[in-house]
Amino acid sequence: MNQDQRSVFIASGEIHAQQVRAFLEAAGISSALQGESLRNTHGLTLDGLGMVRIVVAAADEERARALLASAEAGAFRLEDDIT
Fold it and tell me: How far apart are the C-alpha atoms of 15 and 4, rounded to whole Å?
């Protein structure tokens, strides 16, 4: 990670990372995945091995964190998903 990038999320696997990345990209925030080489080599996540870090440009960090917090709070759930 270079100094112009900020880590905003740590996913527990490939599918999770791709979902979060797609969510950010849909909001107009470019992102990159880091740490995927170990996961691709071993194919598992165990005690932090295989975790995928999602990074964004420093200028997008605040907005990305706010979007992710809103998603975590359920702000983007579809009506059919609410039980």
Answer: 26
What angle is formed at CA 63 by the lines to CA 48 and CA 14, rounded to 5 degrees?
30
What's the count of helices (H) and strands (E) in the chain, helices before strands?
Answer: 3, 3
How far is 18 from 21, CA to CA, in rounded Å? 5
pTM: 0.74
SS3 36: helix
**Stronger pLDDT, 43 or 31, i.e. the higher one:** 31
Crossing angle for the helix pair 14-26 and 61-72, to the nearest 10 degrees:
110
d(CA 70, CA 56): 17
Of 36, 74, 76, nearest in space to 55 by CA: 36
